[in-house]
Design goal:
The structure is a homodimer of 197-residue chains.
Chain A lengths: L3 H10 L7 H13 L1 H18 L1 E2 L6 E2 L5 H4 L7 E5 L2 H10 L5 E4 L17 H8 L6 E4 L5 H13 L6 E4 L15 H9 L5
Parallel strand pairs in A: 3-4, 3-5, 5-6
Antiparallel strand pairs in A: 1-2
Helix pairs in contact in A: 1-2
Chain lengths: 197, 197
């Protein structure tokens, strides 16, 4: 048993995704052995994040400024809005550096099982943005799951009278993927959407 | 790409054992969504730990007091010292509540590969404690690896003129273990050390 003061730290760390009680104990010992190099900077970085990071009122991204750095960047194309489920998806798209428009974070997907309805997602904010004069296209980048695609259809309906083009991500063979390991749905989608070489 | 201020937090979290860049990003989003319930308490707990946790000068345990809670507990048997490699091992033994003596943390094992020699381990402190009038037995609870057993032999040599009994953990079949999955070394050790039922 760890001393009680450390127990609390272990319990808190064990609540992080990917860590359990055992790995949280290892992490705490790792931190205590690297006090100046890791423990103190991590405590400070967490405190800073708790104080300074907020949700962007325009797109829902998390950043230290509001509106966020993406929304205020003048080099980004204001005519494109990419709709994502979560901030994690926004960060994933940003890492590719393939999209130079702006984002809109829904905060989840419609889900009958989890009791998430349209009122739980930030769709009104999206409709309002889509009515803006400079927006010409909304890209629906929700997951290729049943819930994600249901949500995409619902949003496409909501946007039908906003005068914007609505598109979705292409389905197909993942880059670097082997055909043999692909599921039937992806393979038939890739075949249907075949392109001239 | 996450905003730069968050990037630093992600990089620090990714240095914890069991977390990589991807799981650190997930953890940061998890924390930011639970600001009051998790992020602020975790930052405070880390700060507290950085300020208050220190190594016990007697046994090498990590605790908020020095000597640690185990060393100053009057209900614990001062005649027994259990030698462990690391604080993690001490905590593991404490969780079993099967040992009511005191501990001595070596801080590692002898290892030719990693360049760890006798001078890197806290053996002089152990020898000094073993010469104390109340100590009657030293239990060597180092790992059952080559390095761990080498270290145990080295320590047994160092303790040979201290007038204490030196013992080691029993080898055998793990409780709940199936014979079929055990390695040959453990099986033959368990057979050699067989006991009347």
């Amino acid at each position: 048993m760890a001393p009680t003061d450390l127990d609390r730290l272990i319990q808190l760390l064990a609540k992080l995704p990917g860590l359990g009680p055992r790995s949280a104990r290892r992490a705490v010992l790792h931190l205590l052995k690297r006090r100046e190099a890791l423990l103190v900077p991590l405590a400070d970085a967490l405190k800073d994040a708790a104080e300074s990071v907020k949700g962007c009122t325009v797109c829902g991204n998390l950043d230290t400024s509001d509106p966020c750095a993406v929304c205020i960047d003048p080099r980004r194309d204001p005519s494109l809005i990419c709709v994502v489920e979560d901030v994690a998806d926004l960060w994933a798209l940003e890492r590719t550096a393939a999209f130079r428009g702006r984002y809109h974070v829904l905060g989840g997907t419609l889900s009958a099982l989890d009791g998430i309805g349209p009122e739980d997602l930030n769709v009104p904010g999206l409709v309002e943005r889509a009515r803006g004069p400079e927006v010409t296209e909304v890209i629906l980048a929700t997951s290729a799951t049943v819930d994600g695609q249901t949500t995409a259809h619902y949003i496409a309906d909501c946007l039908s009278d906003c005068g914007v083009a609505v598109s979705g991500l292409a389905h197909g063979v993942p880059v670097g993927g082997e055909l043999d390991y692909l599921d039937d749905g992806t393979l038939s989608a890739a075949l249907k959407a075949r392109r001239p070489v």
